[in-house]
Amino acid sequence: MALTAPSRTSPVRARRDADGMAVASFVLGLIGLLLFNAVFGPCAIVLGTLAIARETRRKGRALLGLTLGIADVVLLIVLLTLNHSVFWQFGG
């Protein structure tokens, strides 16, 4: 008789966690365009990737969060290249 370890998370909870990751990825990617893109961008990328890997029902939101996270990192690189700073401002 083979014994197997019980699963710690049910499939319903895992799906709900993945949906939460997709939403968090989108929100962090969106906020990262304005604030702390060095922190929020990579977090959005990781959460979006994990949500897609865990087969979220909110795949579009996870992809959008992933895209916004990449845009955050690109914005950071552009700011570092042009201004030698991680801050951006309107006007002169």
UniProtKB/TrEMBL annotation:
Domain DUF4190 per the UniProt entry, residue ranges: 21-79
Sections of the chain in a coiled coil: none
UniProtKB keywords: Membrane, Transmembrane, Transmembrane helix
Residue ranges of the TM segments: 20-50, 62-82
Pfam families: DUF4190 (PF13828)
Protein name: DUF4190 domain-containing protein
